[in-house]
Specification:
The chain is mainly beta. Helices cover about 15% and strands about 50% of the residues. The longest helix has 24 residues, at about 295-319.
Length: about 325
């Protein structure tokens, strides 16, 4: 009997010591800023299920952008400079296959043009007849592209069929999940966040109207940003959750925090803005936000371990 009790206590103590300290976790998300040596301004736009992140940095005088892919596991940046002739580029989406989408401007024109970067090659993408095309998202399987053309018309492009679906004026389409659900917002006097289902072609609008949806994962969890009152002042905060039940992401000391991309693990990427009083400039920084269990979840896990150990001890006593 004594031996059984010693085994039981040893099992439970080992299990508790192996768990992360519950006090080290808070409900919601842990936000980790990410910097890149040599750049003061950087924004993350999307993250795939393998942890690859897209975004862009700006040069010293903020006149040009350079897109990149960031491996969040190895912490290595790889520039995505755009097709030949590009003087400015930005990366806004990455699929699970590693296909990157974004936009660029050439030396001949400052009009925005879309690109697809796949297997080391660039392919220009523009909506036929459009003056400007901005790609904003790509589905995990790299089939669907989303974006805006002529600064105001939302579109979805099906690479498998070649079909171009336009949504309407002032519809800003952002990220798209593998089910064909797109996150977006209406730009203009109406202002409304929405989700658009490609299969049913139904748009569902949500409150509050101060929110903007930027991406949606396969579970329907949305990220974006919204305006919240802070002592009588409207402050931009990141949001993540289900429509009508959002958690807020806010970097301490920032003027605005924006969620821009989310993967199926619930990891959010985006940017936040601060003010450098010494140089009298605003700066944009990138972040990765990972979800952490609430303290109650650790308690339930611990209770489960106690239950398993007790059951094992009981079986050994009966034996």
């Amino acid at each position: 009997m004594r031996t059984v009790h010693i085994v039981f206590r040893t099992f439970v103590l080992g299990a508790v010591m192996a768990l992360p300290n519950p006090a080290a976790f808070a409900a919601g998300y842990k936000i980790t800023p990410v910097t890149r040596l040599g750049y003061d301004n950087m924004t993350f736009w999307d993250i795939n299920n393998a942890g690859l992140v897209t975004g862009y940095v700006t040069n010293a005088d903020s006149t040009a952008l350079t897109g990149f892919v960031y491996n969040s596991h190895t912490r290595v940046f790889t520039d995505v400079t755009g097709p030949a002739g590009a003087v400015s580029s930005y990366s806004t989406g990455v699929s699970d296959t590693g296909t990157v989408v974004g936009g660029y401007a050439s030396a001949l024109s400052d009009q925005q043009r879309g690109f697809i970067y796949e297997a080391g090659n660039y392919t220009e993408f523009n909506v036929p007849g459009a003056t400007d095309t901005t790609l904003r998202g790509i589905s995990a399987d790299a089939r669907y592209l989303t974006g805006v053309y002529d600064w105001t018309y939302g579109f979805i492009f099906d690479r498998a069929t070649g079909n171009l679906i336009t949504i309407g004026s002032s519809m800003i389409l952002q990220g798209i999940n593998s089910h064909g659900v797109v996150a977006g917002s209406i730009r203009g006097a109406e202002r409304m966040p929405f989700l658009y289902d490609l299969a049913s072609q139904v748009r569902t609008d949500y409150d509050p109207t101060t929110d903007r949806y930027r991406d949606v994962n396969d579970s329907g969890i949305v990220t974006g940003w919204g305006v919240r009152d802070r002592g009588g002042f409207g402050v931009g905060v990141g949001i993540v959750g289900s429509p009508g039940s959002m958690n807020e992401l806010e970097v301490a000391g920032s003027f605005e925090t924006t969620g821009l991309g989310i993967n199926n693990a619930g990891t959010v990427v985006g940017g936040y803005e601060t003010y450098d009083s010494v140089r009298d400039v605003f700066q944009t920084h990138a972040f990765i936000a990972t979800s952490v269990p609430e303290p109650g979840a650790w308690a339930l896990m611990l209770c489960g371990l106690f239950g398993l150990a007790a059951a094992a001890a009981g079986r050994r006593e009966r034996d």
